[in-house]
Amino acid sequence: MKLLAITSCPTGIAHTYMAAESLQMAAKAMGIEIKVETRGSVGVENEITPQDVKEAHALIIAADTQVDKEQFAGLPIINAPVQEAIKNPKGLIENAINAKKLSNPDEKITEPKAPAKAKQNGLYKHLMTGVSYMIPLVSAGGLIIALSFIFGIEAFKEKGTLAAALMDIGGGAAFALMVPLLAGFIAHSIADRPGLVPGLVGGMLATQIGSGFLGGIIAGFCAGYIALWIRNYVKLPKSLEGLKPVLIIPFFSTLLVGLLMVYVIGTPVKAIMDLMTQTLKGMTSANAGFLGLILGGMMAFDMGGPINKAAYAFGVALLSSSVFEPMAAIMAAGMTPPLGLALATVLAKNKFTLEEQEAGKAASVMGISFITEGAIPFAAADPFRVIPAIVAGSAITGALSMLFNCALRAPHGGIFVLLIPNAVSNLGMYVAAIAIGTIITALLIILLKKSPAK
Amino acid sequence: MNIQELLSASRVKFHLTSNNKLDVINELIDVLNQDGKLSDKDKYTEAVLRREKEFSTGIGMGIAIPHAKDSSVKEAALTLGISKAGIDYEALDGSLAHIFFLIAVPAESNDVHLKVLSYISRKLMHQEIRDRLLSATTYEEILAAFKD
């Protein structure tokens, strides 16, 4: 019989290893095979592989930190605080031996699929780790920005007011950290601690070069795999080995990711932005519905990336020439992604994780406030299904808004601007356009999205 | 495995004089501080006590490992104290603690030091090594206990 164990403690200096040793000693005395993964400040050592999971009878988690159980699905798990493994390793092992393998009649049938899925799950797991760290930041930042709109949609422009402070907190700080955090924790998930720094820096650059969250995802994966590669394959003389985690890995991985973001990602991003801006300028006289369709789709495509920014800048520029219809289409299309996702989390709970269902509530508030970013965690977690759905919903909303001749005289504000007399013309039809887009977005998401892996 | 580097002869105290938990923590920190490993003694003490509050590092079997990872530590260092009489350290198993390892790790630490610490932590789980530490009278005997 083979057992698995994971030990981990908050400081990761002593208890993690004492618990591991203690379990190994007890197992040896009892004649049981055990593999103990330690998660301490050095990072993960003696890592449990999918092969181990397949062979094992049960898993002991002796940890005072969070341990993700997803990869151990089907295995009986004995949970205990880390000191329990030090004090009473024998008891834990006995519990593990007596634990019954979860009966799963489907196990054999699904087995052939497992390897392919495991590989895909690797990338997906890293992405989801990044997203799960980002969700609370997006919710907090978005709600604080929405709070500032309560004082009036222009109130934050007055320096020194509470509204301005709220905008600084939500927009200036929280949202500025969003992409770095996403990239940082994707990289952290791939390469442990050495990944965090290049990931954060790469994410920051993704924001600065205007590539939005899609650039951030690229930065996160590059940073993670570069750091991992340096950690595993760059061999140094023993005397320099100590410098690796504090100097060598952070320096080279950050440098590489940084250069990659600035030159390889940054250049095409700027080109896309310029191209989009040019194309839109040429379309001013195009069919109104078609323009709305394009603008709407652009708003939802990369939320904060070059395509979204080009559309938004186009609308704002037209305000100064007293053309108000495209702005209306743009705002409506920027509201439907978070609104549609929020609606989808209510209509089809089984397609979302608990975390996402909670994020859906915050997304609804962000949606009515025209904070498109509320949709980013969902889009980042499942880009190939969510982005087409929200683009379609936003494009239709944008087209409808143009066809209904809705006009908007402010570049932001969401629902708060609708309450101001004369800020929006054709208000009833405008609300209808947003509602239709929201419903279409939600239905498409429910149709496309698969249920999360249990 | 370079244990001397982390645990120098000047940081081994064979006869601790304290008789309660708080005193022994301070006694060990004094040794560490006199050896010039701390930039801010009070801040480090606070970090150690905060860690003790989470749950006692008196892990039983006669061992206590007060520790903190904090920016007030200049470089990773161990301090070893031994009390033949034993001190009540609120141990998990209720026994008195005889062997005290005070662990100081800077906020930014390199892997080599952390690996040595994990090695020592593992060694402490062995009855034979604990017995040898407890009966040691010289620095060399302490080192030998870990190395064999």
TrEMBL record, chain A:
Gene Ontology CC: one annotated term: plasma membrane
Single GO MF descriptor: carbohydrate:proton symporter activity
Protein's recorded name: PTS system, fructose subfamily, IIC subunit
Matches recorded under InterPro entries: Bacterial_PTS_Sugar_Transport, PTS_EIIB-like_sf, PTS_EIIB_2, PTS_EIIB_2/3, PTS_EIIC, PTS_EIIC_2, PTS_IIB_fruc, PTS_IIC_fruc
Topological relation to the membrane, as annotated: Multi-pass membrane protein
Gene3D superfamilies, alphabetized: 3.40.50.2300
Segments forming domain PTS EIIC type-2: 123-454
Subcellular location per the Swiss-Prot or TrEMBL entry: Cell inner membrane
Record organism: Pelosinus fermentans JBW45
UniProtKB/TrEMBL annotation, chain B:
Signal peptide: none
GO MF assignments: protein-N(PI)-phosphohistidine-sugar phosphotransferase activity
Residues of the PTS EIIA type-2 domain: 5-148
GO cellular component terms listed in the entry, alphabetical order: cytoplasm; membrane
Gene3D superfamilies registered for this protein in UniProt: Mannitol-specific EII, Chain A
Lipid metabolism found in the keyword field: no
Location(s) in or outside the cell: Cytoplasm
Highest rank taxon of the organism: Bacteria
GO biological process terms, semicolon-separated: phosphoenolpyruvate-dependent sugar phosphotransferase system
Keyword Transport: yes
InterPro entries found in the cross-reference section: PTrfase/Anion_transptr (IPR016152), PTS_EIIA_type-2_dom (IPR002178), PTS_IIA_fruc (IPR004715), PTS_SugarTrans_NitroReg (IPR051541)
Official protein name in the record: Putative PTS IIA-like nitrogen-regulatory protein PtsN
One Pfam family linked to the record: PTS_EIIA_2
Entry-linked PROSITE patterns: PTS_EIIA_TYPE_2, PTS_EIIA_TYPE_2_HIS
Main localization category: cytoplasm
Swiss-Prot/TrEMBL keywords: Phosphoprotein, Phosphotransferase system, Sugar transport, Transferase, Transport
NCBIfam families referenced in this protein's UniProt entry, alphabetically: fruA
